[in-house]
């Protein structure tokens, strides 16, 4: 190991300057040797505080019931479902980067897939909280699954809510497996690099004895490709099923046939926004600009722009179809959204989701990380508002004007929502501290020296 | 292997082949067209309906490649350079496709209920839609679609010609700059085209998925056509020196992806309408899933999805020229079945049926279009000789 | 008597050298050999003739079992075990059942992929003789190793060392069992 050049090379180094050794050391040192930066303590601490807030909110919920939220007839799906859809959408970019871009042979993904997958996992964990807490009696959540029981009843398989149970639990399981399989070779690296006995034991157990055998790599590569091939339709199906929660119901503003692809596009949109919102600060704190380069940010911004345009297409068509379809309730719904009690949310979401991201057409905006960071935050806010407007406004003003009512979020609504952001930050920074945030072995394959030079005769 | 060492001009033997194919397709086209004209005299109603769905197929053949052309300028990639010239040739056929719209214009009263003022007055739903569904506005919209497509095709072709004559620097950045907005125009125009030409046949019904379904169908139709064409070209120089299984594999992946996307859109639309069971929505499916039409639907599930999907999963198959071309041709046939299933049940509510004009109309339209397309194809070299990444593209295939 | 060994291991500095060495060893007639690298090397798969593995078949079977299980579960519950009229939908509401059947297909296939991969690799395996070579820790960093195992019929401690030395490795070491 003494033959290695300096680990802490100038931060502006682009990938050509790296060797197998420096790539390994730079990424592994974040976990193993480098001093934990103050930023990490600050972010992890903030996450911890918000996580405590979440636990408090959940504790009060368990004692008092869902009445502490702003749920009143007819709006029985308030913040909880909005947050569920928002979080699970954010998770989708991780799977997209790790699976679809792998299938498309887009090798630039190799340095952002790991933390994007971790983001998926933690976003799904946050998402999963909400429907369970929303059940009212969360300790009976296992009733959602079909199992032989003394009550003699079974779930209604025609209901999209039951589909959701299967879709989200499958998604969580497959994402976890995909992430873990991707980690195995890097866990072996950490096992071989650490000097701490406890860490060596822990990484060793998790690495399962990975030794980089060519036989293993061959099976491993097949497995990764197959998992990517399975995860790709899965990720589309998950948000499709989430959209079925709405569109299978015949509620005005929900029941429209293009909702599945529109939701999928919106999910990828917010997911890439989250990738940018995490990658931009992380790479400057840890000096990883050579690995997460401006090209990664540019490509992510382009994906954001493209999916944002699909979302814009959806708004246009939604409005046109409400008029063209001629259904009184659909027309009233669009009108209520634009001018009713939720008009402020509606027009802010138009601003955040459609107008603001048009700046991404310009190369000058895409090449400035600060602008990208801001637009990512704007899109995250916009996509949250979008789900809020879809869910709450359709329920608040339904078929019967006599039952209309306005949804008012309570402080516990906000506490639970902000609390899951804490849960996300907590898990994410724990991950940054304990596991390599960039896939070391996949970045090694990006180096020019990884290419086998064929001899003339072969 | 250097790009300079290769000549991308259409070789004399290919030119002879193209001429042969052109004559044949023109002969089939003229036969189809003449018999369809005879059909027009016997039953105008049947003629226009057969003409409409056959015409939609030809539109997909001409407009779909335009979308691929713009997509490859936006995203880059070796696959795009390989199919660029056929896509440009297809875009150059757009004036002919616009001309072919004239019979629909003439037969508009035979096709669209909303074009009869008396019926619009009698029907509340049609009265509501009248500001959109009326003949003058319909014509304006159609003119906008064609003008936009024609402009995009013309501009991209002109840039490409300048690249050939003046070198890449003369057009650098221009094609990708127009392709981004161009794709937006394509998406919107195909959506509203599908609403105008197809969805309004059944004016009470509406589905927001319809535009997306048509975009996917256009992509699928044109990709299947391009694959079949590339394999045909492969047997003669210059393509026999250039095309490799790796190139074909890339195109095959698109075919697989679009087969899945088509199935996904179709299934979502069906499930949502089936589960909702609303009186303004479900009749569209009732017409298409009863009276013999359910067998057509079943054929689509198997032939348009299950079969090509399972076959295209195989990597070896996507690299086999003949097999991939056969699947592409099969998909093209299923596209015709799908269009028939989308359009015809609105006129044949009582039971499934086929008229002889449902064969002659596609023969006429596709035959004439194909002859014109092949004529356009041989005008230019089959690969852009001044493309800046041409060597990488050729190298990509050899890896 | 000399202690038995697991095999002989040669260390290389570049993937190119490792692939060349693996090819040479195959040509020499060695069959029980394995290469170790910090990242997957496509050419190595060629060099060691490792092309076909059964994983796609395992995943396919897993997917089929999952899909059938998911669909039949729903059919059994809604048609046989707990038939109940919900909003006038038929008991056998097949369009609705496709969604869960799809999810279980993916779930079972993905689980088969992961478990199948571990099984085909023989993992988890906390102890392996190769770990006895001190420099082998670099196989997960920046070094490339070729190991010829003693159970190979052509294996002979002296001549195999001699052969490995001809491949110009950084060093050759014995692997304790």
Quick structural summary:
The complex is a heterotrimer of chains A (about 450), B (about 400) and C (about 180). Chain A is an all-alpha fold and about 450 residues long. Chain A is built from 15 helices and no strands.
Helix content of chain C: 40-55%
Distance N to C terminus of chain A: 33 Å
Strand element count of chain C: 4
Strand residue content of chain C: 5-15%
Number of helices of chain A: 15
- The CATH level-2 architecture of chain A is identified as Up-down Bundle
N-to-C SSE string of chain A, H for helix and E for strand: HHHHHHHHHHHHHHH
Mean residue pLDDT of chain C: 86
Relevant CATH superfamily of chain A: Formate dehydrogenase/DMSO reductase domain
The largest contact between protein chains, plus residue counts on each side, is:
A-C, 70 and 72 residues
Please state the overall shape of chain A, judged from the principal axes of the Cα atoms: globular
Helix content of chain A: 55-70%
Overall shape of chain C: rod-shaped
Oligomer kind = heterotrimer
Spans where pLDDT lies below 50 across 5 or more residues of chain C: none
Q: Could you tell me the radius of gyration of chain C in angstroms?
A: 25 Å
CATH fold name of chain A, please? Formate dehydrogenase/DMSO reductase fold
The helix/strand series of chain C, from N terminus to C terminus, equals EHEHHHEHE
Characterization of this structure:
The complex is a heterotrimer of chains A (458), B (399) and C (177). Chain A is mainly α and 458 residues long. Chain A has one domain (20-451): Formate dehydrogenase/DMSO reductase fold, CATH 1.20.1630.10. Chain A contains 15 helices and no strands. In chain A, helix 4 (113-134) runs antiparallel to helix 14 and helix 10 (328-339) crosses helix 11. The longest helix of chain A has 34 residues, at 160-193. Chain A is globular. Mean pLDDT of chain A is 86; it is low at 1-14. Chain B is mainly α and 399 residues long. Chain B contains 19 helices and no strands. Chain B has helices at 12-42, 44-75, 78-92, 94-100, 102-106, 108-111, 117-122, 124-129, 135-166, 174-197, 210-234, 239-242, 245-276, 282-288, 293-312, 315-318, 321-343, 357-377, 390-398. The longest helix of chain B is centred in the N-terminal third of the chain and has 32 residues, at 44-75. Chain B is globular, with a radius of gyration of 21 Å. The mean pLDDT of chain B is 88. Chain C has two domains: 7-52 and 129-175, no CATH class; 55-121, no CATH class. With 177 residues, chain C is an alpha+beta fold. In chain C, strands 2-3-1-4 form a four-stranded antiparallel beta sheet, covered by helices on one side. Chain C starts with 6 loop residues before the first strand and ends with a strand. Classes of the chains: A mainly alpha (458), B mainly alpha (399), C alpha+beta (177). Chains in contact: A-B, A-C, B-C. The interface between A and C is large, with 70 and 72 residues.
